[in-house]
User: Fold this.
Amino acid sequence: MFKSASPTPEEEASFQTAVQQSSAQRQAAKQAALEACSPQEAALLQCYREGSFFSCAAARTAFWECYRKKRVRMGAVVARGVCFVEVCRAWLLVP
Assistant:
């Protein structure tokens, strides 16, 4: 069920960043990650409209991988307090 019994260093760093952030910072990171992953989200929603939950595994995986990666990136930047919204959104769009 789980990949490993203990978290990887990257997962641990992500957790520590999230714990130290305020609610507003976490919300900003979520919103920016959703905006950055909107093409994947649109593809997933289209797949759901045309197919079923089970037939959309690839689109679902693509969306969640993008979201998690961008969220961790955004969370780290917001936690350091070095990000203006426009700059962060442009930076998140870099793969």
Notes: The chain has five helices and no strands. The chain has a mean pLDDT of 76.
